[in-house]
Write a structure and sequence with these properties.
Blueprint (H helix, E strand, L loop, with lengths): L4 H8 L2 E8 L6 H19 L5 E6 L6 E7 L5 H18 L3 E8 L2 E6 L24 H20 L7 E7 L5 E7 L6 H13 L1 H5 L4
Antiparallel strand pairs: 1-4, 2-3, 3-5, 4-5, 6-7
Helix pairs in contact: 2-3, 4-5
């Protein structure tokens, strides 16, 4: 994929984190990484112009690559595709030789692995992004935040959605608005989605109490 500097700059501020898993046996790393590039540039990138989530494979064992992307449900297909392009560049550049990797941006995530993705819940790797802006009433804010997330999780895990996600805007104070959003990978069951989302929300007081 060709990437302009303006495209990279546009999404650079939305970068969150990337995580790579490297193994001691890298004898087939060259072909494996070639398959990673082919998978994302020839298959998943094109899918991002039409769908907000997709997965695919490329190559044969032992160099077979399993890959997926998941865009935020409230972005357009064009924004999704732009995010995937930048994420692919990041993951290929920073995770050369890795057998498994994931990169998060605010609008999308991209992941590849040398084995099929499990259909059950995975809670690692994970990352919390803290924005260090204090709220005036942490206790009240935390209660409003917890209730908002509880409502969204109930909504997402009690009905069938093409993309299991929801967002809402609530009043955090007389002048402040609070926007909350939850989203899961589409292949997760409702039960696993519920466990995952509630587990993530439970971590918020540990990392981000009194912040917004």
């Amino acid at each position: 994929l060709l990437q302009s500097s303006s495209e990279a700059a546009k999404l650079d501020s939305n970068y969150v984190y990337h995580f790579c898993v490297r193994e001691s046996d890298t004898s087939s790393g060259g072909l494996f990484m070639f398959n990673v590039g082919t998978l994302f540039s020839a298959k998943l990138y094109n899918e991002a112009g039409r769908y907000l989530y997709s997965n695919a494979t490329e190559g044969d064992y032992p160099d077979k690559v399993y890959g997926l992307y998941n865009c935020r449900f409230d972005v357009s297909n064009d924004v999704c595709q732009d995010c995937i392009k930048v994420a692919i560049h990041t993951i290929v550049t920073n995770c050369t030789g890795a057998k498994e990797a994931i990169v998060w941006y605010d609008q999308c995530m991209v992941r590849f692995c040398n084995s099929s993705f499990p259909s059950w819940l995975e809670t690692e790797p994970s990352v919390a992004l803290l924005i260090t802006i204090n709220v005036t009433d942490p206790y009240k804010f935390s209660n409003i935040l917890a209730q908002s997330f509880s409502d969204l999780i109930q909504n997402v895990t009690s009905r069938d959605f093409e993309y299991p996600a929801a967002a809402q805007m609530v009043n955090a104070s007389s002048i402040d608005k609070l926007r909350t959003l939850v989203q899961c990978i589409p292949y997760l069951s409702k039960s696993d989605s519920n466990i995952c989302l509630r587990g993530a929300v439970a971590q918020i007081p540990n990392c981000c109490y009194g912040k917004r």
